[in-house]
């Protein structure tokens, strides 16, 4: 009796219009890595990309394109276990991740890329066991972002003659009626494609799907840092053939500004001044605004929590407004959809964004509160107490570091509301060390694989460069395993 529910209701053998060995869905780092690995293992590969060529590649297109470096798989495995905490990841997955993340640079060089370090990046969780393995960022040409990794991978796909179908989302996985194995994909246009050896889901996260965000993360009306095409397509396809899920409540978010009416937003990094504070809808502070933060988590109240994870209002004054751009331009940080795809350059003094109405302006905190729909007296009191903490050099409310305590004295005052800005989600179909998708009983769904942010390894905290490394490692594993599957 088949373990998996077949997708063909009449139990007749499925019919196809097109046939290949391996179908890969998604053209980001994981999808390109899977397609390249499957091709190099002798398979005929078809890569289906949801977006058109100008927007293809998901978040990889606009990411930093960096992977972390290490030379010690044993210590890397220790670090990953510590980052997961009590949300343990199966040990075979940990071991494969630790061993293969060491070889990402070598593989990039095999594709013709020049690999070099970028910056002086240190472990974001230095207090955790194993963090000493962390060797910083590696990038194509040593350049962060600027599409370098995406262009290298797509060039490698093109050089191999791998067929790519743009503007072609997958809609349904096709299963064999007798075995339940995944044997193909139906596209949204109704074309049925046979995948003789396997299907690799590399469709990205669900950050672009409001219903899934509400159900799994409790977020509404969030702005996006990356591709809006990440709408959980692979999640739904996998669920319909019986896949189990993991990490669905994990994500990476940042403080960000979204222009009214836009789905995408900008990083808000305040690189030039620390004169700002965060308040909730009550008009009061709720956290240390400058707590050291990893890629999505910070140590708050003695434990690692998602950060930021809730809507908030960011308040600052005229001195901070003049100090420099809140959001870095491509010359400083060439990442993000608004910067790389839309080509927007933030003004040097933030005045253009104030004039556009992206940032509220008022002469007093009480007037600013009225614009934000906050209790005026509460916001006035919050600003006064914060300024007193700055004068004393001690934040008795939230323990903010003294060197970050810069008062808000100079009117006018400014504010914007952050959703927060969601970079990516982490959860999706549960998979094993071979990137094979598992069902609710922990059994392999034959012929189905997942890699990248559709099914991230990271159950909780994650460090810089981890996501690109994970996508490449398990993308390669998925493609090669599928190609060699009989």
TrEMBL record:
InterPro entries cross-referenced by the UniProt entry: FAD-dep_OxRdtase_2_FAD-bd, FAD-oxidoreductase_2, FAD/NAD-bd_sf, Succ_DH/fumarate_Rdtase_cat_sf
Boundaries of every FAD-dependent oxidoreductase 2 FAD-binding domain copy: 21-464
A Pfam family that the UniProt record links to this protein: FAD_binding_2
Keywords annotated in UniProt: FAD, Flavoprotein, Oxidoreductase
The protein's required cofactors: FAD
PANTHER family: 3-OXOSTEROID 1-DEHYDROGENASE, FUMARATE REDUCTASE
Protein name from the UniProt record: FAD-dependent oxidoreductase
């Amino acid at each position: 009796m088949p373990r998996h529910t077949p997708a063909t209701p009449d139990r007749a053998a499925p019919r196809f219009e097109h046939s290949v060995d391996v179908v890969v869905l998604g053209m980001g780092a994981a999808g390109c890595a899977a397609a390249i690995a499957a091709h190099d293992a002798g398979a005929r590969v078809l890569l289906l990309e949801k977006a058109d060529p100008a927007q293809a590649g998901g978040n990889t297109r606009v990411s930093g394109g960096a992977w972390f470096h290490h030379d010690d798989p044993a210590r890397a495995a220790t670090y990953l276990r510590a980052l997961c905490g009590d949300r343990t990841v199966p040990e075979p997955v940990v071991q494969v991740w630790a061993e293969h993340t060491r070889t990402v640079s070598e593989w990039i060089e095999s594709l013709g890329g020049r690999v070099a370090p970028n910056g002086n990046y240190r472990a974001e969780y230095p207090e955790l066991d194993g963090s000493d393995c962390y060797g910083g960022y590696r990038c194509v040409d040593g350049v962060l972002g600027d599409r370098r990794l995406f262009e290298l991978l797509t060039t490698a796909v093109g050089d191999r003659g791998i067929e790519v179908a743009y503007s072609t989302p997958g809609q349904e996985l096709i299963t064999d009626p007798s075995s339940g194995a995944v044997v193909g994909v139906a596209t949204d246009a109704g074309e049925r494609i046979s995948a003789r050896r396997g299907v690799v889901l590399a469709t990205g996260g669900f950050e672009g799907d409001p219903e899934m965000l509400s159900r799994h993360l409790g977020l509404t009306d969030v702005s996006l840092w990356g591709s809006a095409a990440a709408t959980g397509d692979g999640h739904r396809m996998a669920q319909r053939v019986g896949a189990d899920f993991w990490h669905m409540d994990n994500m990476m978010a940042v403080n960000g500004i979204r222009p009214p009416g836009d789905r995408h937003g900008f990083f808000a990094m305040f690189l030039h001044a620390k004169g700002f504070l965060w308040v909730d809808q009550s008009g009061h502070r709720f956290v240390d605004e400058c707590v050291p933060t990893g890629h999505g988590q910070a140590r708050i109240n003695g434990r690692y929590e998602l950060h930021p994870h809730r809507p908030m209002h960011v308040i600052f004054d005229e001195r901070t407004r003049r100090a420099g751009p809140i959001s870095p331009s491509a010359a400083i940080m060439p990442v993000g959809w608004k910067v790389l795809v839309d080509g927007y350059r933030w003004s040097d003094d933030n005045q253009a964004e104030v004039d556009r109405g992206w940032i509220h302006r008022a002469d007093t905190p009480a007037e600013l509160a009225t614009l934000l729909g906050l209790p005026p007296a509460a916001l006035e009191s919050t600003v006064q107490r914060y300024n007193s903490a700055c004068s004393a050099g001690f934040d008795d409310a939230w323990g903010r570091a003294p060197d970050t305590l810069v008062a808000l004295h100079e009117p006018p005052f400014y504010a914007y509301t952050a959703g927060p800005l969601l970079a990516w989600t982490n959860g999706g179909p549960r998979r094993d060390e071979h990137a094979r998708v598992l069902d609710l009983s922990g059994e392999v769904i034959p012929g189905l694989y997942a890699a990248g942010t559709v099914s991230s390894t990271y159950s909780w905290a994650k460090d810089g460069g981890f996501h690109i490394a994970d996508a490449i490692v398990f993308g390669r594993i998925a493609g090669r395993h599928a190609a060699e599957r009989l």
